[in-house]
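job 3f2a | input accepted
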Amino acid sequence: MKLNNTNHSQSFTLLKNTFSSSKNCFRRVMLMGSSPFPKWLFLFLLLAFLLSSTTESSTLVLVRQGNDLINATCKRTGNFNLCTKALGSDPRSFKSDVKGLAKISLEMSLTKANQTLNLVGDLFKNTREPVLFRLLGTCIEEYRQAVTNYLPEAMSALQSNNYGASKQGAENAAADAQVCVQQFAGRKSPVRDRSKMVKDLCLIASSIVSTLQ
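job 3f2a | predicted structure (213 res):
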């Protein structure tokens, strides 16, 4: 996903469409003012148009500011593309401050870690190969630790402004995902891509939290 240019292009398109729509609406309202329409209705519609235009402009400004904060924050993570793609997929990001972005990134990490744990559990139940059975069992232990301890603790620490503990929790969860992959040395891991995603999201969350320290 082309994040920076795409977001700006979408904002420009929205602004252009809003201007075009508002201009047409204004033209219709003015035509009513010159027709045998009740004056009070004309004034009401004109006021409604002005209020609507102000609201639309304010919304566009907030979206633009939110997009700028996402980009500025993600530039400090070391993984700009994934960071902007992930945060940009959640509408809350455009209304959040940096602490809010950290919270959203931790929530995404937890969601992806839980999904990966469920997948590993299914693979574990269905394998009959002893070596793979052992490797997947280790992955289950690592991911269970991430989703029940490290990431929830990181979110709780963030809430209480204990940024050091929050950062450490996210990094510990990233390490858990890495351990799951590394033990497959010489073998193809069935959860390599998912584990990399979990690790990268956790490290992004850690980096965002570190900007608050």
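job 3f2a | Helices lie at 3-33, 39-74, 80-88, 98-126, 130-159, 163-182, 192-210.
job 3f2a | closed
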